[in-house]
């Protein structure tokens, strides 16, 4: 088991989000059909403790990637606060912001598009390293980083197309570490890799985390990855957190029908008609209209009743666990669905 | 494709499977113009009405095998040896005109990204109806009716009006249903689905897999499902072919192969599929790049059980348990 966050942690969390919100202006056919601009990120609170791994889970349209981009300041939030090491990121001076840029690094899903194809891997890493130049020889540092990521030093002279996807993802991780960050945000870091290779990258991440006391936020739709490395999971649906808590507790006893349906959809084995009728998430993503204020899953949820059309707060479902479902707040979701 | 140099009489090693043989691939070799081999004696068997999955990582040759079966190899790539048989008919070396009559009629395919495999400038209903008319010669109206009926059965609400929409009007999951409709409109004996749900969200993936499952069952068609995801294959297929670096490493009934894997590679994939809580499962190393010289077992460099004989002597694909084939010296 990954080490769990100790409750006596008193220091400020590495990252804290308070009521973070971002709405994109409606644009194009889809938005016009929706009629209303739904916030991509709709009032998210999140705390990442030093040295922990949190997984942000959801499907397309959940807002998980937008949230990652807000944290990295690739998008600007409409409202809410981002605190890094207890400090407001929005108010940072230019110099401190530069430090923030180095302290928070990103690893992307597709390493092929995140590396410049014309440059060697070594020169791409050196480019990033300019944010926080190393004390000694940059080339020696690049070799050291590559070796730490399980690659040989000769990879510094290779170009992205000369190496495999798994190797390039290792190089992407080496690049992120080149500026000694505190927090690494990863957007589907293993989704482009074969199942047999994914674990190699995840193991590397776990080792680097131990060695450097890194904090990870992994954005993914892959529940297998979550199970393997994240001690905490945050499940998003249409811009909101619908459930969060320790991974094994949430996965063993999901308290939001969306979490349960997601687990069921992943677990393609063990299906039967009755379970299917009570657990399965139906249809596809549907944005709420302006006058709908209840649970956003209501049209797709197998358990939906009238009460679900009322606003659903994120309620305590156990120590350190919350879910946005009145049913889940009362106890385990009955598999029979009664 | 060449016709003169290749021995066509070879039969697959995977003989004796229950059911009538529908598709048999034996000793299939595929190479680039530069002579780099991509398939090294691939073997495969799909009995009529069976559901066979091909699992393998990128570069294993799973999609190349499907392309060779359909005679749709990429430019510059050709079959250099081996046989592809559909019932009693040898497909390898058939002229394009004859292959075209088979594709879409007897064997059809659904690709990963449906939107890009459909014509963006034509309403989807018209595209499907055209396939129907090309192969069956029914009237325009009849083809249209069959199309609407099929779209409806595949879970497209308001099918009659949706048939007039263009591909970009459909979401990923719905577009995949359209592609499935196009593949099924002529009731093929074999549907090949090449990563049909990769890239779709899990809840949508489950829906699309159900559509494939139901429609293949209903027609008693055979399914050849290609996926890198062993979980999808386990849920959908009665037989599984484990391929690696252009070779078949293991073949048999899904439950048997996953329950008693004979190849350490298969055993590694099974471990990766269901790691224990907090365990990080993987197979060390990487698949050899095409053109890497081969000696001994192709998986030996990554195999924890490899011995000297694995590194020097190539194991042969043999039936090691009833209806369960593998190529591994350790069995």
UniProtKB/TrEMBL annotation, chain A:
Residue intervals of the ABC transporter domain: 15-263
GO process annotations (BP): peptide transport; transmembrane transport
Domain of life: Bacteria
PROSITE patterns with a match to the protein in the record: ABC_TRANSPORTER_1, ABC_TRANSPORTER_2
InterPro entries per record: AAA+_ATPase (IPR003593), ABC_transp_ATP-bind (IPR050319), ABC_transporter-like_ATP-bd (IPR003439), ABC_transporter-like_CS (IPR017871), Oligopep_ABC_C (IPR013563), P-loop_NTPase (IPR027417)
Keyword annotations of the record: ATP-binding, Nucleotide-binding, Transport
Pfam families: ABC_tran, oligo_HPY
Region (Disordered): 311-338
Molecular-function annotations in GO: ATP binding; ATP hydrolysis activity
SUPFAM superfamilies given in the database record: P-loop containing nucleoside triphosphate hydrolases
PANTHER family the UniProt entry points to: TRANSPORT ATP-BINDING PROTEIN
NCBIfam families to which the protein is assigned, alphabetical: oligo_HPY (TIGR01727)
Protein name in UniProt: Oligopeptide/dipeptide ABC transporter ATP-binding protein
Organism of origin: Conexibacter arvalis
From TrEMBL, chain B:
Keyword NAD: no
Pfam family, one: ABC_tran
CDD domains, sorted: ABC_NikE_OppD_transporters
Keywords: ATP-binding, Cell membrane, Membrane, Nucleotide-binding, Transport
Location(s), subcellular: Cell membrane
Name by which UniProt lists this protein: Oligopeptide/dipeptide ABC transporter ATP-binding protein
Main location class: membrane
PROSITE patterns per record: ABC_TRANSPORTER_1, ABC_TRANSPORTER_2
């Amino acid at each position: 088991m990954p080490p769990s966050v100790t409750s006596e942690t008193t220091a400020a969390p590495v990252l804290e989000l308070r009521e973070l919100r971002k709405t994109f202006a409606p644009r194009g056919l889809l938005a016009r059909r929706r009629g209303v601009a739904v916030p991509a990120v709709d009032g998210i609170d999140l705390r990442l403790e030093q040295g922990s791994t949190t997984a942000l889970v959801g499907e397309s349209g959940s807002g998980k990637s937008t949230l990652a981009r807000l944290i990295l300041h690739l998008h600007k939030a409409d409202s809410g606060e981002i605190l890094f090491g207890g400090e407001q990121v929005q108010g940072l001076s230019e110099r401190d912001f530069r430090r923030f840029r180095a302290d928070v690094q990103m690893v992307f899903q597709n390493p092929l598009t995140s590396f410049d194809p014309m440059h060697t891997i070594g020169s791409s890493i050196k480019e990033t390293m300019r944010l926080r130049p190393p004390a000694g020889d940059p080339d020696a540092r690049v070799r050291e980083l590559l070796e730490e990521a399980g690659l040989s030093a000769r990879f510094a002279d290779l170009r992205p197309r000369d190496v495999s996807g798994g190797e390039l993802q290792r190089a992407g991780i080496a690049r992120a570490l080149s500026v000694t960050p505190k927090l690494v945000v990863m957007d589907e870091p293993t989704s482009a890799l074969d199942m047999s290779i994914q674990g190699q990258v995840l193991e590397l991440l776990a080792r680097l985390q131990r060695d450097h006391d890194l904090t990870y936020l992994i954005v993914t739709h892959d529940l297998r990855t979550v199970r393997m490395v994240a001690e905490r999971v945050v499940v998003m649906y249409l811009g909101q957190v619908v459930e969060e808590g320790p991974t094994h507790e949430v996965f063993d006893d999901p308290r939001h029908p969306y979490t349960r349906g997601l687990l069921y959809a992943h677990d393609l084995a063990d299906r039967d008609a009755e379970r299917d009728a009570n657990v399965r998430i139906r249809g596809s993503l549907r944005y709420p209209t302006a006058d709908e204020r209840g649970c956003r899953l209501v049209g797709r949820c197998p358990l939906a009743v009238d009460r679900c059309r009322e606003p659903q707060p994120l309620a305590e479902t156990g120590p350190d666990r919350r879910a946005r479902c009145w049913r889940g707040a009362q106890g385990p979701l009955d598999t029979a669905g009664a | 494709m060449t016709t003169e140099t290749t021995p066509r009489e070879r039969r697959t090693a995977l003989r004796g499977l229950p059911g009538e043989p529908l598709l048999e691939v034996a000793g299939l070799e595929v190479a680039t113009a530069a002579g780099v081999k991509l398939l090294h004696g691939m073997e495969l068997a799909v009995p009529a009405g069976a559901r066979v999955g091909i699992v393998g990582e990128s570069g294993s040759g799973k999609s190349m095998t499907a392309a060779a079966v359909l005679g749709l190899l990429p430019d510059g790539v050709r079959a250099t040896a081996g046989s592809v048989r559909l019932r009693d008919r040898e497909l390898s070396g058939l002229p394009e005109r004859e292959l075209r009559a088979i594709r879409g009629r007897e064997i059809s395919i659904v690709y990963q990204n449906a939107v890009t495999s459909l014509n963006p400038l034509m309403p989807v209903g018209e595209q499907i109806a055209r396939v129907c008319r090309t192969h069956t010669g029914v009237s325009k109206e009849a083809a249209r009716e069959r199309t609407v009926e099929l779209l409806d059965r595949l879970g497209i609400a308001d099918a009659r009006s949706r048939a007039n929409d263009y591909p970009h009007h459909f979401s990923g999951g719905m577009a995949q249903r359209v592609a499935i409709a196009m593949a099924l409109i002529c009731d093929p004996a074999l549907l090949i689905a090449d990563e049909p749900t990769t890239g779709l969200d899990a809840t949508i993936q489950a829906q699309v897999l159900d559509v494939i499952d139901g429609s293949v069952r209903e027609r008693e068609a055979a399914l050849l499902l290609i996926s890198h995801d062993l979980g999808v294959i386990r849920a959908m297929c009665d037989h599984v072919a484990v391929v690696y670096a252009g070779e078949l490493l293991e073949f048999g009934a899904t439950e048997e192969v996953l329950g008693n894997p004979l190849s350490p590679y298969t055993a590694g994939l099974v471990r990766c599929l269901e790691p224990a809580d907090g365990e990080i499962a993987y197979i060390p190393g990487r698949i050899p790049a095409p053109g890497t010289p081969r000696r001994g077992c192709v998986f030996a460099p990554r195999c924890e059980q490899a011995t000297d004989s694995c590194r020097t002597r190539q194991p042969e694909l043999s039936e090691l348990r009833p209806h369960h084939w593998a190529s591994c010296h350790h069995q």
